[in-house]
Amino acid sequence: MSEISQTFSQLKERNEGALIAYVTIGDPTPRRTPLIADALIQGGADIVELGIPFSDPIADGSTIQKAVSRSLMIGTKPQDVFEIARRVRERHETPLVLMTYYNPVLKFGLADFLGQAREAGISGLIVPDLPVEEATEHKAMCGAAGIDTIFLASPSTGPSRLKQIVGQTSGYLYLVTLYGVTGIRTTLGESALKLVTDCRKALNGAVPLAAGFGISHPHHVKQIIAAGADGAIVGSAFVKIIEENGSSMARATLKLTRLAKELKKAARSRATRR
């Protein structure tokens, strides 16, 4: 059983939902990213997604696009990713997931990329622009490296393709709950919650279901977990805190930990409804 699978299994035993926290590597600086990960884990994040900055982040909204731009402007390189992950794993057992577009992987070479990821303690890999139909070699090599391949499904994913994706994903299925890009929302529409419920039924327990895009507040997490998700993915809300408090890491980490605690408390609300 992989580290990510073990995490979801342990949370299921406690009847808790997972809090999956995303941050962009190198924002505000590579040196500070491990401190940000520390703050999120201290606040209760069960899994941390580390985003590799890429010049054309097509799936991301303005908040994360700005973080990517800030990271690239100060010279963050894909190679920094592995050293940062290594530093985080020296202090925590929390699974780390890399989120990257495929171009940086191609530049490294898949074998070299996965070898360094494994040595750095990476547990999973998300590549939003790699379709499942073209991922046979990618998945096989990830499996050989002991790294979960986490695929995405969206509101436009039909039943037959969802079945295909579920057959290939491991760790968890990343469900995009709305059309468009990432970003902070004030409310989650009924369509998003229905999508979670319908996807949960279609999965039938084959793999944990984690929902993201637009999840920004504790009440969103409660709604997503109540609708049937095993975990909630939160990114832009954390990245916005970093943007607004980049000049003071002490203030930023305090606010990140506080928000993570609030979100994790909401993810535990499943345990109160036994």
Name some characteristics of this structure:
274 residues; alpha/beta; TIM Barrel; nine-stranded parallel sheet; 9 strands; 50% helix; globular
Q: How would you summarize this macromolecular structure in one to three sentences?
A:
The chain is of the alpha/beta class and 274 residues long. It has helices at 3-13, 33-43, 62-73, 78-91, 102-108, 110-120, 136-144, 159-168, 190-203, 218-227, 236-244, 249-267, and strands at residues 18-24, 47-51, 96-99, 122-126, 148-150, 152-153, 173-176, 209-212, 231-234.
Could you explain the architecture of this structure?
- The protein is an alpha/beta fold.
- It is built from 12 helices and 9 strands.
- The protein has helices at 3-13, 33-43, 62-73, 78-91, 102-108, 110-120, 136-144, 159-168, 190-203, 218-227, 236-244, 249-267; strands at 18-24, 47-51, 96-99, 122-126, 148-150, 152-153, 173-176, 209-212, 231-234.
- Helix 11 (236-244) packs antiparallel against helix 12 (249-267).
- Mean pLDDT is 91; it is low at 180-184.
Largest β-sheet summary: 9 strands, parallel
Q: How many runs of DSSP E, i.e. beta strands?
A: 9
Number of domains: 1
SS element count, helices: 12
Rg estimate, integer Å:
17 Å
In the CATH hierarchy, the architecture is Alpha-Beta Barrel
Look at the helices and sheets and give the structural class: alpha/beta
- State the name of the first-level CATH class: Alpha Beta
Strand content: 5-15%
Q: Going across the major beta sheet, what is the strand order?
A: 5-4-3-2-1-9-8-7-6
Tell me the quaternary state: single chain
CATH topology: TIM Barrel
SSE pattern, N- to C-terminal: HEHEHHEHHEHEEHEHEHEHH
Low-pLDDT sequence parts: 180-184
Roughly what is the average pLDDT, rounded to an integer?
Answer: 91
Shape: globular
CATH homologous superfamily (4th level) name: Aldolase class I
